[in-house]
Amino acid sequence: MRDVTIQELYTLDETIAKEIFEGRTYPWEVLPCIKDFILKLGGTLSPEEYDRVGENVWIAKDAKVAPTASINGPAIIGKGAEIRQCAFIRGNAIVGEGAVVGNSTELKNVILFNKVQVPHYNYVGDSILGYKAHMGAGSITSNVKADKKLVVVKGEGEQIETGLKKFGAMLGDNVEVGCNSVLNPGTVVGKNSNIYPLSSVRGVIPSGHIFKNSKEIVKKFTE
Question: 41 exposed, middle or buried (CB, 10 Å; 0-12, 13-18, 19+)?
Fold first, then answer.
């Protein structure tokens, strides 16, 4: 499935975590490695640009962090990022440059590329969000199947065993997720695609498409 590869989904120059993707084909392959990668990368960050706060939390000096936000390590908060009031970063999180983590949003084991926005009441766990991806208010990633079985990525006539019990969603660059949508375990949304509000999404949504419902996924019109 070409649409679910790292190469097709992401602009790797738009993340401080570029190195973690090297030598890998699918983005979910990095999920078990995020913690160790942050610990390694954090130690190399310039103290002139980043403050080390608490245990294994690095925050760019020009990032804005609300006093009510809770950030547990390991975590890296990039340059110009904004962590708003009551945001909860549980750990193993990389927040990209210029990204927004909003009020009451929770992150866990994630990579947010530069300028990602998860600004209102979002839960994002065991997921990777590409450059300028945006999740509308109340939209979440569901990262564990109800039957607790390992997650399988299911595309058109093809399946990929991930070997992972916890796997939320992989969103490509410039993906727009409508308000109050649920991205079920193993969802992959190709770059430049849109998800209608109030959607329940599973499987692979090709790049450049609009998900209206499970039976109506249409290609975007481009001039």
Answer: middle
Q: How far is CA 177 from CA 79, 208, 210, in A?
A: 24, 13, 10
* Residue 136 · residue 177 · CB < 8 Å: yes
Backbone angles phi, psi at 158, to 5 degrees: -145, 145
* Residue 120 annotated as catalytic: yes
Contacts (Cβ under 8 Å, ≥6 apart) of 100: 81, 82, 84, 116, 117, 118, 119
Per DSSP, the three-state class of 168 is coil
Q: What's this model's pTM, rounded to 2 decimal places? A: 0.96
> One of 35, 79, 90, 120 is an active-site residue; which one?
120
Q: Over the stretch 23-81, which tens digit does the pLDDT of each residue have? A: 999 999 999 999 999 999 999 999 999 999 988 999 999 999 999 999 999 999 999 99
| Encoded amino acid at 42, one letter | G
Token duo for residue 196: 């209608």
CA Rg, the chain, in Å?
16
Phi first, then psi: what are they for 208, rounded to 5°?
A: 70, 30
Which domains are present in the chain? 2-219 (2.160.10.10)
Residue pLDDT, tens place only, 122-169: 999 999 999 999 999 999 999 999 999 999 999 888 899 999 999 999
